[in-house]
Automatic annotation (TrEMBL):
Its EC number is 2.4.1.-. This is Glycosyltransferase. It comes from the Eukaryota. It comes from Lupinus angustifolius (Narrow-leaved blue lupine). The chain crosses the membrane at residues 7-29. Belongs to the UDP-glycosyltransferase family. Pfam families: UDPGT (PF00201). One of its GO terms (molecular function) is UDP-glucosyltransferase activity. Keywords: Glycosyltransferase, Membrane, Transferase, Transmembrane, Transmembrane helix. CDD domains: GT1_Gtf-like.
Length: 474
């Protein structure tokens, strides 16, 4: 009988990293393996409500976040809470400072295998010292990694798409950071990537050549979980669903810029005017983490809001039942899968890209920082299931760039109309989105590429390790 593997997962402190890694852990637990997520108190809150208390295969080990050492207020442990570069640097510093506590924990309770996020570049030294096999988790696209490398030098850039962004000015410090992340795969036993073979088949070989290790494509993890366990990390009770359910099929534009990006007041204002002018219905998620103060009076809140929302905008759209604004966290996967959603105006985070593929929803791309620009090219030029907002802005290193050029209402209106008005172009893009959706669901079905890869990976791991647990699969 197969024995259960004892697997430790260490997600990086960002929504776009925690969510797909917890999905992967839930998947492994659903196959009967003993999984433990090592994380800090606030990061555990991102997923703890979605975990079944009765699940004897899924465990969470809480470590302290080194708040004092990095100078962050207690409770700020994730890039979800960040609203400036300084906070990002402090969170990254904390990611390095947790090494001794994790090492001590693993020394006392060694796992069969350790799966840290790629950001934990120290994990190579730790697992080497303890003699524990290690797989790296990469939550972003293979295409993007190939592009970053292509900007430096590539032996054989036969893929035309690799040259797409060659004239983009990448900040050298950014390239250095990503090189250290790529190098974090040194001496690992492979890299697990949140993608699926049929989506990135042209780049997979090149990626493996660049990193020098086997890539295990086990995604989209959100779909793997939906298919295997039947739920996703979302709350379907949210008030937005009564709004969506009153709408016709494919008639609502979903607007969200992910978990980290903070748009300026001016940019939010232009988005409001742009969607208003387009005449289309919308569901708009706005993260106002830097605007909310506990001690704000109602008047102060209203004053604050007038900086980014045209006067009377919300009341008018609600009265006309044309739009809804969610100020805070939204159940994105469930929203995208609602039949009324006909398009997604997105920052192009890799999770957003995979989630919209899973739902067969075409997109409008408005990248904000980092890999978003590469994902935009992948979506619009390589895979053809989206349209760009023109003058989408220059490449930014950070989501908090105060000098970021504001994208005009006219550009936003034009792109919304291009996707939502109908016509031949929209039909073509929509059918491409549906085709990719089919491929993604095939990949996660029994016998599909991602399911098969997961099975092969587990079979591959067994002989690599001396099983610490004698537990049979649960
Ligand atoms: N997300 C969500 N609700 C929100 C904002 C984000 O559920 O209101 C989730 C989204 O579904 C995705 C993740 O947060 O899984 C964001 O990751 P992504 O790679 O799209 O973007 P990032 O936030 O890293 O830019």
């Amino acid at each position: 009988m197969s024995k259960a593997l004892k697997i430790y997962f260490l997600p990086f402190f960002a929504g776009g990293h925690v969510i797909p890694m917890v999905n992967l852990a839930r998947l492994m637990a659903s196959k009967g393996h003993q999984v433990t997520i090592i994380t800090t108190p606030s990061n555990a809150k991102i997923f703890d409500k979605t975990i079944d208390d009765e699940d004897t295969c899924f465990h969470v080990h809480i470590i302290k976040f080194p708040s004092n050492q990095v100078g962050l207020p207690v409770g700020v442990e994730n890039l979800l809470e960040a609203y400036d570069d300084q906070t990002v640097r402090q969170v990254l510093m904390a990611a390095n400072l947790i090494q001794p506590e994790i090492e001590a924990f693993m020394k006392l309770n060694p796992p069969d295998i350790f799966i840290p996020d790629m950001v934990f570049t120290w994990s190579e030294a730790t697992t080497k010292t303890l003699g524990i096999p290690r797989l790296i988790f990469n939550p972003i696209s293979i295409f993007y990694f190939c592009m970053i490398k292509a900007n430096k030098s590539i032996d054989d850039p036969k893929e035309e798409a690799l040259l797409l962004l060659n004239d983009t000015k990448l900040d050298p410090s950014y390239v250095r950071f990503y090189e250290s992340v790529v190098n974090s795969a040194n001496n690992c036993d492979g890299v697990i990537v949140n993608t699926f073979l049929e989506l990135e088949v042209e780049y997979t070989q090149l990626y493996e050549k660049l990193i020098g290790y086997k890539a295990w494509l086990i995604g989209p993890t959100s779909l793997m979980v939906q298919k295997t366990i039947g739920t996703c990390m979302n709350n379907d009770e949210h008030e937005c669903f009564s709004f969506l359910s009153s709408k016709e099929q494919n008639s609502v534009l979903y607007i969200s810029f992910g978990s980290m990006s903070l748009l300026s007041d001016e940019q939010l204002f232009e988005i409001a005017r742009g969607i208003e002018a387009s005449g289309h219905q919308f569901l708009w998620v706005v993260h106002i983490k830097n605007k909310r103060r506990d001690d704000n009076t109602k008047e102060q809140e209203e004053e604050e809001e007038l900086k980014w929302l045209p006067k009377g905008f919300e009341e008018k759209t609600m009265k006309e039942k044309r739009g809804l604004i969610i100020k805070g966290w939204a159940p994105q996967v469930s929203i995208l899968n609602h039949s009324s959603i006909g398009g997604f105006l997105t920052q192009c985070g890799w999770n957003a890209a995979l989630e919209t593929i899973g739902a067969g929803v075409p997109v409008i791309t408005m990248p904000i920082f980092s890999d978003h620009y590469f994902n935009e090219k992948f979506i619009t030029e390589v895979q053809g299931f989206g349209v760009e907002v023109e003058e989408g802005g220059e490449w930014s290193l950070t989501p908090y760039d105060p000098n970021k050029k504001v994208v005009s209402r006219e550009s936003i209106e034009k792109a919304v109309k291009r996707l939502m008005d109908g016509g031949e172009e929209r039909m073509k893009i929509r059918s491409q989105a549906k085709e990719l959706q089919e491929k993604a669901w095939k990949a996660v079905e029994e016998g599909g590429s991602s399911q098969n890869t997961l099975t092969i990976l587990i079979n591959h791991l067994h002989p690599l390790i001396l099983l610490t647990s004698e537990t049979p699969l649960c």
